[in-house]
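Thread: "does anyone have the structure for this chain?"

Original post by V.I.:
We have the sequence but no experimental structure in hand. Need at least a predicted one for the grant figures.
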Amino acid sequence: MFFMEECMLKKKTKILIALLSILMLFAISILGGFLGVFIQRKSKQNTMDFSSLVSSANKTVLFIGDGMGENHIKVASAFYEKEMFMTSFEKKGFVSTFSNSLVSPTDSAAAASALATGQKFDNKEVSRHNGIDVETISEIAKKTGIGVGIVTTDSLDGATPSCFSSHANRRGDSDEIIKGQIASQIDLFLGAGKNTYDNFQSEIEGKGFVYSSNLNEFSFAQRRVFGSFESVVSKDGTNLTPTLEMLTEFAIDFFETNFPNGYFLMIEGAHIDKKSHSNQIFEMVEYLNSFDQSIKIAHDKLNTQNGVAIIVTADHETGGLQFNNQTKEQISNSLYTRTGHSSKDVPYFIFFKPSKDVDLQTLKSKIDNTDIFKLCKSFISK
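Reply from O.Q.:
Generated one for you, tokens below.
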């Protein structure tokens, strides 16, 4: 009896050891996978030298198509039966978008913070990591003495505009974000969020801004402008509900008048993302076309000058959008494969007319989102 019990115990011990060995191998495999991802991501950062580009584009406009992947552009081109204007820019490639998260795609806050500061962030952080504010391209630009503007179809306290104009532990900390925007040295804000920002009108005006929700009430004679509208629409805009094209045209003219020696301007098309989250493909292409036409407006106003850079990219891809050369008639909401973000690389397009004898030939076709910040910083640095 004792012998049989001893044999059973030895058998159970062997089984337990085998199970533990399998679990250890599985854990090592998972850890190795995470380590591999970490090493691969690190290898994509800090590999570009932009020193030759310093002070080559004192007028830099950064367009961010929130959620805009390569297939979003292809679908819009098929729907409108024309090439999107942004694709005509000579320099183009792709941008990696990962955040500090190893297990999920980036969110808009971490991605925009990387674009704005050149560092990686945890999801939901707004240009502040582990409680420490990280200097943004907007703050750097103001230190050089040039103008700075923020334009978006989103509420101005949305993730992307917030990361370029304020600091907070988490996206959604609206009061802190708005107070940071008001205290900033930024010269122009144009976007949605009227109902929220009306509550801060006296504080905004106390900092020297002209505040209004009517685009017609602004003029180029005003040195600081804060426009918070009921909404920013994709077509048939009015002074109360303008389009991104209307805001872009005003912003460029404002800075050409008030800051002819240079400015940094961030312009976001937020609804490419919003309509992709809800898999509304026809509404998405309308907003993407508006975004593209805004790029053309900026280009047409600035392309004859030297010292100009127009950068177009995205913070991440939304919707896992598929495209297999569908015709306009074949486009449908079913081309989306998810409602959330994906980890796909996103495109970049650059128009560059430098103020000195340099070019972008050494810029790789595959860069990281932190490289966008480095490009902008080099362009506007003295």
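V.I.: this helps a lot. Residues 27-43 have pLDDT under 50 and may be disordered.
O.Q.: and DSSP finds twelve helices and 14 strands in the chain.
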